[in-house]
Fold:
Amino acid sequence: MKHLTSFFISLLIATCSFAQQALWSGSQIISPEINQDNSVTFRLHAPKAVKVLVTGDFTEAGYAELVEKDGIWTYTTAPLSPELYSYSFVVDGLTVRDPSNVYMIRDVASVTNVFIVGGGRADLYKVNDVPHGSVSKVWYHSPTLGMNRRMTVYTPAGYEQNRRQKYPVFYLLHGAGGDEEAWMDLGRTSQILDNLIAQGKAEPMIVVMTNGNAGESAAPGQCPDGFERIPGFQQRGMMEGSFEMHFPDVVKYIESNYRVFKDKKHRAIAGLSMGGFHSMHISKYYPDMFDYVGLFSAAARFHENSDCPVYMNEKAQIDAQFAKKPALYWIAIGNTDFLYQENVKFRNYLDEKGYKYEYVESEGGHIWKNWRIYLTEFVPKLFR
Structure:
Protein backbone atom coordinates (compact mmCIF):
# COMPACT_ATOMS: atom_id res chain seq x y z
CA MET A 1 0.00 0.00 0.00
CA LYS A 2 2.88 2.32 0.86
CA HIS A 3 4.51 1.65 -2.52
CA LEU A 4 1.19 2.24 -4.30
CA THR A 5 0.75 5.56 -2.53
CA SER A 6 4.29 6.59 -3.48
CA PHE A 7 3.56 5.67 -7.10
CA PHE A 8 0.47 7.91 -7.24
CA ILE A 9 2.34 10.78 -5.59
CA SER A 10 5.12 10.45 -8.17
CA LEU A 11 2.57 10.34 -10.99
CA LEU A 12 0.86 13.46 -9.65
CA ILE A 13 4.16 15.33 -9.44
CA ALA A 14 5.06 14.30 -12.99
CA THR A 15 1.66 15.37 -14.30
CA CYS A 16 1.86 18.74 -12.56
CA SER A 17 5.39 19.24 -13.86
CA PHE A 18 4.25 18.51 -17.42
CA ALA A 19 1.31 20.93 -17.05
CA GLN A 20 3.60 23.63 -15.68
CA GLN A 21 6.03 23.08 -18.55
CA ALA A 22 3.21 23.45 -21.08
CA LEU A 23 2.05 26.59 -19.29
CA TRP A 24 5.40 28.35 -19.15
CA SER A 25 7.18 27.08 -22.25
CA GLY A 26 4.99 29.07 -24.64
CA SER A 27 6.35 31.90 -26.74
CA GLN A 28 7.13 35.11 -24.87
CA ILE A 29 6.93 37.09 -28.10
CA ILE A 30 4.08 39.60 -28.19
CA SER A 31 2.27 39.47 -31.51
CA PRO A 32 0.23 41.27 -32.52
CA GLU A 33 0.92 44.25 -30.26
CA ILE A 34 -1.55 47.13 -30.58
CA ASN A 35 0.37 50.34 -29.95
CA GLN A 36 -0.93 53.58 -28.43
CA ASP A 37 -1.40 55.20 -31.85
CA ASN A 38 -3.35 52.12 -33.08
CA SER A 39 -0.49 50.91 -35.21
CA VAL A 40 0.06 47.18 -34.83
CA THR A 41 3.37 45.34 -34.54
CA PHE A 42 3.72 41.72 -35.70
CA ARG A 43 6.60 39.51 -34.59
CA LEU A 44 7.66 36.00 -35.54
CA HIS A 45 10.60 33.95 -34.31
CA ALA A 46 11.95 32.23 -37.44
CA PRO A 47 15.78 32.32 -37.37
CA LYS A 48 16.18 30.06 -40.42
CA ALA A 49 13.64 31.81 -42.62
CA VAL A 50 14.72 33.68 -45.74
CA LYS A 51 11.59 35.79 -46.29
CA VAL A 52 8.56 36.43 -44.10
CA LEU A 53 5.38 38.24 -45.11
CA VAL A 54 2.24 39.14 -43.22
CA THR A 55 -0.99 39.00 -45.22
CA GLY A 56 -4.09 40.75 -44.00
CA ASP A 57 -6.87 43.22 -44.65
CA PHE A 58 -4.91 46.19 -43.34
CA THR A 59 -2.41 46.80 -46.18
CA GLU A 60 -3.18 48.15 -49.65
CA ALA A 61 -1.16 45.41 -51.34
CA GLY A 62 -2.67 42.71 -49.13
CA TYR A 63 0.73 41.82 -47.68
CA ALA A 64 3.82 43.42 -46.12
CA GLU A 65 7.39 42.17 -45.67
CA LEU A 66 8.83 41.71 -42.19
CA VAL A 67 12.39 42.70 -41.27
CA GLU A 68 14.67 40.27 -39.41
CA LYS A 69 16.94 40.98 -36.44
CA ASP A 70 18.42 38.27 -34.23
CA GLY A 71 16.00 35.71 -35.61
CA ILE A 72 12.92 37.85 -34.86
CA TRP A 73 10.98 39.11 -37.86
CA THR A 74 9.05 42.36 -37.27
CA TYR A 75 6.60 44.61 -39.09
CA THR A 76 4.63 47.61 -37.80
CA THR A 77 1.60 48.94 -39.65
CA ALA A 78 0.51 52.52 -40.01
CA PRO A 79 -2.21 53.50 -37.47
CA LEU A 80 -5.29 51.37 -38.18
CA SER A 81 -8.92 52.37 -38.03
CA PRO A 82 -11.04 50.61 -35.40
CA GLU A 83 -12.04 47.20 -36.79
CA LEU A 84 -11.69 43.44 -36.44
CA TYR A 85 -8.74 42.36 -38.60
CA SER A 86 -7.50 38.97 -39.81
CA TYR A 87 -4.00 37.96 -40.86
CA SER A 88 -1.53 35.13 -41.49
CA PHE A 89 2.23 34.82 -41.93
CA VAL A 90 3.86 33.51 -45.08
CA VAL A 91 7.27 32.00 -44.31
CA ASP A 92 9.29 31.18 -47.42
CA GLY A 93 6.08 30.64 -49.34
CA LEU A 94 4.30 28.60 -46.67
CA THR A 95 1.24 30.15 -45.00
CA VAL A 96 1.32 29.67 -41.23
CA ARG A 97 -0.58 30.93 -38.20
CA ASP A 98 0.96 33.32 -35.69
CA PRO A 99 2.22 31.04 -32.84
CA SER A 100 1.95 33.97 -30.41
CA ASN A 101 -1.75 34.53 -31.09
CA VAL A 102 -4.21 31.79 -30.12
CA TYR A 103 -7.24 33.66 -31.49
CA MET A 104 -8.33 32.30 -34.86
CA ILE A 105 -11.41 32.22 -37.10
CA ARG A 106 -12.39 29.86 -39.92
CA ASP A 107 -13.87 31.46 -43.04
CA VAL A 108 -14.98 28.65 -45.39
CA ALA A 109 -11.71 26.64 -45.58
CA SER A 110 -9.29 29.39 -44.52
CA VAL A 111 -8.12 29.78 -40.92
CA THR A 112 -6.61 33.12 -39.93
CA ASN A 113 -5.52 34.87 -36.76
CA VAL A 114 -7.61 37.84 -35.64
CA PHE A 115 -7.33 40.94 -33.47
CA ILE A 116 -9.48 43.99 -32.75
CA VAL A 117 -8.42 47.62 -32.80
CA GLY A 118 -10.98 49.19 -30.50
CA GLY A 119 -12.86 52.43 -30.69
CA GLY A 120 -16.01 53.61 -32.43
CA ARG A 121 -18.10 50.91 -34.09
CA ALA A 122 -15.45 48.27 -33.37
CA ASP A 123 -16.30 48.46 -29.68
CA LEU A 124 -19.56 46.73 -30.61
CA TYR A 125 -17.48 43.71 -31.67
CA LYS A 126 -15.90 43.35 -28.23
CA VAL A 127 -17.11 41.40 -25.23
CA ASN A 128 -17.87 44.36 -22.98
CA ASP A 129 -19.02 44.48 -19.36
CA VAL A 130 -22.74 44.37 -20.20
CA PRO A 131 -25.49 41.77 -19.69
CA HIS A 132 -24.87 38.87 -22.05
CA GLY A 133 -27.28 36.70 -23.98
CA SER A 134 -26.95 32.95 -24.46
CA VAL A 135 -25.96 31.06 -27.60
CA SER A 136 -27.22 27.53 -28.29
CA LYS A 137 -26.55 25.00 -31.02
CA VAL A 138 -29.98 23.51 -31.62
CA TRP A 139 -31.08 20.55 -33.74
CA TYR A 140 -34.50 20.64 -35.39
CA HIS A 141 -36.35 18.31 -37.73
CA SER A 142 -37.34 19.50 -41.20
CA PRO A 143 -40.20 17.44 -42.64
CA THR A 144 -39.76 19.30 -45.93
CA LEU A 145 -36.14 18.22 -46.33
CA GLY A 146 -36.56 14.93 -44.48
CA MET A 147 -33.59 15.47 -42.18
CA ASN A 148 -32.47 16.78 -38.83
CA ARG A 149 -30.59 20.06 -39.13
CA ARG A 150 -28.65 22.35 -36.83
CA MET A 151 -29.11 26.04 -36.16
CA THR A 152 -27.51 28.60 -33.88
CA VAL A 153 -29.90 30.54 -31.63
CA TYR A 154 -29.06 33.69 -29.69
CA THR A 155 -31.40 34.57 -26.81
CA PRO A 156 -30.96 38.00 -25.19
CA ALA A 157 -29.89 38.64 -21.62
CA GLY A 158 -32.76 37.93 -19.24
CA TYR A 159 -34.51 35.41 -21.47
CA GLU A 160 -34.08 32.59 -18.92
CA GLN A 161 -35.27 34.76 -16.02
CA ASN A 162 -38.15 36.68 -17.64
CA ARG A 163 -40.32 33.65 -18.23
CA ARG A 164 -43.45 35.62 -19.06
CA GLN A 165 -41.85 37.89 -21.62
CA LYS A 166 -42.17 37.19 -25.34
CA TYR A 167 -39.62 38.29 -27.91
CA PRO A 168 -39.47 39.18 -31.61
CA VAL A 169 -37.31 36.99 -33.86
CA PHE A 170 -34.63 37.96 -36.36
CA TYR A 171 -33.63 35.23 -38.85
CA LEU A 172 -30.05 35.92 -40.00
CA LEU A 173 -28.66 33.98 -42.97
CA HIS A 174 -25.08 33.32 -44.10
CA GLY A 175 -23.49 33.40 -47.55
CA ALA A 176 -22.08 30.80 -49.92
CA GLY A 177 -19.42 28.70 -48.25
CA GLY A 178 -20.77 29.59 -44.82
CA ASP A 179 -22.88 27.70 -42.33
CA GLU A 180 -24.78 28.19 -39.09
CA GLU A 181 -21.57 29.26 -37.32
CA ALA A 182 -20.49 32.01 -39.73
CA TRP A 183 -22.48 34.93 -38.34
CA MET A 184 -21.41 34.10 -34.79
CA ASP A 185 -17.70 33.68 -35.48
CA LEU A 186 -17.08 36.12 -38.33
CA GLY A 187 -20.03 38.45 -37.85
CA ARG A 188 -19.67 38.91 -34.05
CA THR A 189 -23.44 38.65 -33.80
CA SER A 190 -23.76 37.94 -30.08
CA GLN A 191 -21.35 40.74 -29.18
CA ILE A 192 -23.15 43.21 -31.45
CA LEU A 193 -26.58 42.27 -30.08
CA ASP A 194 -25.40 42.32 -26.45
CA ASN A 195 -23.89 45.77 -26.84
CA LEU A 196 -26.70 47.36 -28.87
CA ILE A 197 -29.35 46.04 -26.49
CA ALA A 198 -27.38 47.21 -23.44
CA GLN A 199 -27.07 50.69 -24.99
CA GLY A 200 -30.81 50.83 -25.60
CA LYS A 201 -30.23 51.03 -29.36
CA ALA A 202 -31.90 47.70 -30.16
CA GLU A 203 -34.91 45.83 -28.86
CA PRO A 204 -34.20 42.56 -27.04
CA MET A 205 -34.71 39.87 -29.67
CA ILE A 206 -33.96 36.27 -30.53
CA VAL A 207 -31.61 35.73 -33.46
CA VAL A 208 -31.81 32.49 -35.44
CA MET A 209 -28.95 31.43 -37.72
CA THR A 210 -29.56 28.20 -39.61
CA ASN A 211 -27.60 26.37 -42.32
CA GLY A 212 -28.49 27.77 -45.74
CA ASN A 213 -27.28 24.72 -47.68
CA ALA A 214 -30.42 22.62 -47.94
CA GLY A 215 -28.50 19.38 -48.54
CA GLU A 216 -26.37 19.78 -45.42
CA SER A 217 -27.49 19.08 -41.89
CA ALA A 218 -24.82 21.17 -40.18
CA ALA A 219 -21.45 22.86 -40.46
CA PRO A 220 -18.44 20.79 -41.60
CA GLY A 221 -17.15 18.74 -38.70
CA GLN A 222 -20.48 19.07 -36.88
CA CYS A 223 -22.57 16.77 -39.08
CA PRO A 224 -22.75 13.01 -39.75
CA ASP A 225 -20.03 13.40 -42.40
CA GLY A 226 -17.67 14.19 -39.52
CA PHE A 227 -14.26 15.51 -40.48
CA GLU A 228 -14.39 13.98 -43.93
CA ARG A 229 -16.25 16.81 -45.61
CA ILE A 230 -13.96 19.77 -46.30
CA PRO A 231 -15.51 23.25 -46.18
CA GLY A 232 -15.98 24.80 -49.61
CA PHE A 233 -18.09 27.29 -51.52
CA GLN A 234 -20.04 24.60 -53.34
CA GLN A 235 -22.28 22.74 -50.90
CA ARG A 236 -25.28 20.51 -51.44
CA GLY A 237 -28.62 22.24 -51.94
CA MET A 238 -27.44 25.77 -52.71
CA MET A 239 -29.82 28.36 -54.18
CA GLU A 240 -32.12 25.89 -55.91
CA GLY A 241 -35.28 26.52 -53.94
CA SER A 242 -35.19 23.79 -51.30
CA PHE A 243 -33.94 26.05 -48.54
CA GLU A 244 -36.67 28.61 -49.20
CA MET A 245 -39.36 25.91 -49.35
CA HIS A 246 -38.27 24.45 -46.01
CA PHE A 247 -38.07 27.76 -44.13
CA PRO A 248 -41.52 27.46 -42.51
CA ASP A 249 -40.06 24.39 -40.73
CA VAL A 250 -37.50 26.69 -39.09
CA VAL A 251 -40.12 29.25 -38.06
CA LYS A 252 -42.44 26.54 -36.74
CA TYR A 253 -39.67 25.04 -34.59
CA ILE A 254 -38.74 28.41 -33.10
CA GLU A 255 -42.33 29.35 -32.40
CA SER A 256 -42.99 25.97 -30.79
CA ASN A 257 -39.92 25.98 -28.55
CA TYR A 258 -39.21 29.63 -27.65
CA ARG A 259 -41.26 32.41 -26.08
CA VAL A 260 -41.79 34.51 -29.17
CA PHE A 261 -44.46 36.58 -30.86
CA LYS A 262 -45.98 34.72 -33.79
CA ASP A 263 -46.94 37.46 -36.20
CA LYS A 264 -45.42 39.27 -39.15
CA LYS A 265 -44.62 42.52 -37.33
CA HIS A 266 -42.40 40.62 -34.89
CA ARG A 267 -40.38 38.74 -37.52
CA ALA A 268 -37.36 39.96 -39.50
CA ILE A 269 -35.11 38.24 -42.04
CA ALA A 270 -31.77 39.31 -43.51
CA GLY A 271 -28.67 37.74 -44.96
CA LEU A 272 -25.42 38.33 -46.75
CA SER A 273 -24.70 37.35 -50.37
CA MET A 274 -26.44 33.96 -50.81
CA GLY A 275 -28.26 34.70 -47.54
CA GLY A 276 -29.47 37.96 -49.07
CA PHE A 277 -30.70 35.97 -52.05
CA HIS A 278 -32.54 33.66 -49.66
CA SER A 279 -33.97 36.60 -47.72
CA MET A 280 -35.24 38.21 -50.91
CA HIS A 281 -36.95 35.04 -52.14
CA ILE A 282 -38.27 33.76 -48.80
CA SER A 283 -39.82 37.12 -47.95
CA LYS A 284 -41.56 37.43 -51.34
CA TYR A 285 -42.68 33.79 -51.48
CA TYR A 286 -44.15 34.08 -47.97
CA PRO A 287 -45.31 37.73 -48.03
CA ASP A 288 -47.21 37.42 -44.75
CA MET A 289 -44.24 36.07 -42.81
CA PHE A 290 -41.75 38.98 -42.45
CA ASP A 291 -42.27 42.70 -41.91
CA TYR A 292 -38.54 43.49 -41.94
CA VAL A 293 -36.23 42.40 -44.76
CA GLY A 294 -32.50 43.07 -45.14
CA LEU A 295 -30.36 42.34 -48.19
CA PHE A 296 -26.64 42.60 -47.39
CA SER A 297 -24.50 42.45 -50.57
CA ALA A 298 -27.23 40.21 -51.89
CA ALA A 299 -27.31 38.11 -55.01
CA ALA A 300 -30.49 40.04 -55.80
CA ARG A 301 -31.35 38.34 -59.05
CA PHE A 302 -34.46 37.12 -60.77
CA HIS A 303 -34.46 33.66 -62.33
CA GLU A 304 -35.64 32.92 -65.82
CA ASN A 305 -37.43 29.78 -66.96
CA SER A 306 -37.27 28.16 -63.51
CA ASP A 307 -39.72 25.39 -62.67
CA CYS A 308 -39.28 25.93 -58.91
CA PRO A 309 -42.35 27.63 -57.40
CA VAL A 310 -40.12 29.98 -55.38
CA TYR A 311 -38.64 31.44 -58.58
CA MET A 312 -41.72 31.40 -60.82
CA ASN A 313 -43.54 34.68 -61.47
CA GLU A 314 -40.97 36.44 -59.30
CA LYS A 315 -41.93 39.98 -60.19
CA ALA A 316 -45.56 39.20 -59.41
CA GLN A 317 -44.41 37.86 -56.03
CA ILE A 318 -42.45 41.08 -55.39
CA ASP A 319 -45.53 43.09 -56.34
CA ALA A 320 -47.68 41.09 -53.90
CA GLN A 321 -45.08 41.53 -51.15
CA PHE A 322 -44.90 45.32 -51.50
CA ALA A 323 -48.67 45.55 -51.79
CA LYS A 324 -48.67 44.41 -48.17
CA LYS A 325 -46.33 47.32 -47.28
CA PRO A 326 -43.42 45.78 -45.33
CA ALA A 327 -42.31 47.92 -42.41
CA LEU A 328 -38.72 47.97 -43.70
CA TYR A 329 -37.02 46.77 -46.86
CA TRP A 330 -33.31 47.51 -46.46
CA ILE A 331 -30.61 47.08 -49.13
CA ALA A 332 -26.87 47.59 -48.52
CA ILE A 333 -23.81 46.90 -50.65
CA GLY A 334 -20.20 48.00 -51.09
CA ASN A 335 -19.35 50.23 -54.03
CA THR A 336 -16.78 47.75 -55.39
CA ASP A 337 -18.80 44.60 -54.68
CA PHE A 338 -18.96 42.17 -57.62
CA LEU A 339 -22.74 42.02 -57.08
CA TYR A 340 -23.12 45.78 -57.31
CA GLN A 341 -24.73 45.82 -60.78
CA GLU A 342 -27.20 43.11 -59.79
CA ASN A 343 -28.32 45.35 -56.96
CA VAL A 344 -28.59 48.32 -59.33
CA LYS A 345 -30.92 46.32 -61.61
CA PHE A 346 -33.02 45.14 -58.67
CA ARG A 347 -33.32 48.66 -57.26
CA ASN A 348 -34.24 49.98 -60.70
CA TYR A 349 -37.19 47.60 -60.72
CA LEU A 350 -38.26 48.73 -57.25
CA ASP A 351 -37.87 52.38 -58.31
CA GLU A 352 -39.92 51.86 -61.47
CA LYS A 353 -42.72 50.43 -59.35
CA GLY A 354 -42.42 53.14 -56.72
CA TYR A 355 -41.75 50.64 -53.94
CA LYS A 356 -40.32 52.07 -50.75
CA TYR A 357 -36.96 50.80 -49.49
CA GLU A 358 -33.86 52.09 -47.70
CA TYR A 359 -30.48 51.94 -49.40
CA VAL A 360 -26.97 52.06 -47.92
CA GLU A 361 -23.82 52.10 -50.03
CA SER A 362 -20.50 51.59 -48.27
CA GLU A 363 -16.86 51.55 -49.29
CA GLY A 364 -15.24 48.28 -50.30
CA GLY A 365 -16.39 44.96 -51.64
CA HIS A 366 -17.77 41.56 -50.66
CA ILE A 367 -16.20 41.43 -47.22
CA TRP A 368 -17.08 40.71 -43.59
CA LYS A 369 -16.08 44.22 -42.59
CA ASN A 370 -19.09 45.51 -44.51
CA TRP A 371 -21.48 42.81 -43.27
CA ARG A 372 -20.66 43.55 -39.65
CA ILE A 373 -21.34 47.22 -40.36
CA TYR A 374 -24.67 46.38 -42.00
CA LEU A 375 -25.68 44.26 -39.02
CA THR A 376 -24.95 47.11 -36.60
CA GLU A 377 -27.07 49.48 -38.71
CA PHE A 378 -29.95 47.12 -39.51
CA VAL A 379 -30.63 45.74 -36.03
CA PRO A 380 -31.52 49.11 -34.41
CA LYS A 381 -34.26 49.55 -37.04
CA LEU A 382 -36.09 46.37 -36.10
CA PHE A 383 -39.32 46.06 -34.12
CA ARG A 384 -39.52 49.75 -33.24
In short: Confidence is low (pLDDT under 50) at residues 4-26.
